[in-house]
Amino acid sequence: MExxxxxxxxxxxRELGLDTQNxxxxxxxxxxxxxxxxxLVALRPIVAAHAAxxxxxxxxxxxxxxxxxTLLSNHELTDRARTMxxxxxxxxxxxxxxxxxxxxxxxxxxxxxxxxxDTRVFLGAFQALVRSVGVRVMREGGAEAFDRFTSFEKLAFxxxxxxxxxxxxxxxxxxxxxxxxxxxxxxPVLQLRNRLLLLPIIGVxxxxxxxxxxxxxxxxxxxxxxxxxxxxxTGVATIxxxxxxxxxxxxxxxxxxxxxxxxxxxSSDVAQSLVAIGLDVGRFNTVGDLQGGLEEAERILGFEIxxxxxxxxxxxx
Amino acid sequence: xxxxxxxxxxxxxxxxxxxxxxxxxxxxxEVVESVGRFRARGVxxxxxxxxxxxxxATRTLRGIAHAAQLRGADTIVVGIQPDVAVxxxxxxxxxxxxTTALDxxxxxxxxxxxxxxxxxx
Amino acid sequence: MAxxxxxxxxxxxxxxxARQRGRQLASECGFSTRDQTLIATAIxxxxxxxxxxAREGHIVLEPIEKPDGRRGISVAAIDRGPGIADVELAMRxxxxxxxxxxxxLPGARRLMDEFEIETAMGKGTTIRMRKxxx
Lengths: 317, 121, 134
Prior knowledge:
Helices cover 65% and strands 11% of the residues of chain A. Chain A is built from 13 helices and seven strands.
């Protein structure tokens, strides 16, 4: 299944397993309960009054750090982030900490991920923000100030845990996509001429790569209506019985789709050792080198290569 | 049911959905009967629509091919999809004794080539 | 995640239902189309065995998860048929008693990652197979 190009909050809710049960469990991790909700709501006047300054604290901290350049140089992103941060902050003292609260954090996390914000940078800025809230809460004084701030801290940790999950998830997704792209590049299927494919295979063939090679070949056979494929394994590091088995399966599957596969580049040593293991190398339709393999392919397709005095021509026979 | 169409002396049966035991038996009978009636030289069975070809289906296709062969018609199976081909090979079903081609068009070409080579070109 | 799904197998057409449901569940689990076909084919093989030898039974499909979070699918084929006299023989390629070529069991095993079979003469057979996401 292909990963979506851009995950949405809904996808993330599912992928990160953030159902009501898990959200409650997460709150319990941070010993966040109904008492804390009451205390947070009591902080609303203070936080609302200083909201703008507090958001500035967060973003000033980002400016101070080089890595946050992408986020800040893109004005549209920054404006959106500022607005979201302000909403985020007000929601922290809003009194409702349900699935939609979590979704709001996921949205912010996605924004940061897309801007390439580093986790450490984010944590530094967020910590500065929380500290600033603390300063203002304590300044207002009152017996309950510290108590209320403690509740705020619990929620802050809760928020951080979610945003970190998003950043990590997105980074892993990027890595997976890159790995997939590299794998695809390493198993090219080239169409040489009408109905003839060439697969130059280089490197190590493990089970997963063998699957990729087979899938790529078969889909190309269908897309290009190929009748012959030349699979050159000269560049394959080791050809043991396992690799030979994979290649055989590829050849068999291609035949089911009406295509001949000619394997070239199997040295006679390797061929002999495979025969010694008991593999029917004859089923491979092997030809020593690539040139020979291509000629064999063209023969099968009904073309003739005619060599005229000094120059090579191709005549349709 | 499976529509069996006639193109010259070639019969084409396009299997549209997973068939039951009875359906496949009926298909075999119809193919054999049609080969006889129309003096068909070739039968093309198109399995493009099948998302699974298990050992049973493969056995049945083989049965149809052999029955048609006995009546003088070559059978070609076409339309095996990539994922299905992979599953069949992993299942150990190589279909070695049955000729395959990519699609109906290629199946026709193959039948022509065979006939030409048989009668000398 | 969805709970397990039970599909009764008594007729030919149930084999098709079972493998379509299997494909659907595999798709929801996130399996590639290639793996979906492998799973559907394995289901077809064991379901057909039920129809051919036990006349009726059922297929149980279930999404599963490893402790490390890796997801997979579990397929169980359960019947109260005559049982398999010699399992080792049945699991050998090419073994056949009835009309079948006997490719059912070893074939299904090759398509899946895990395969277990429990059988008792006169009592029935339970086959459990699992495939995991790469």
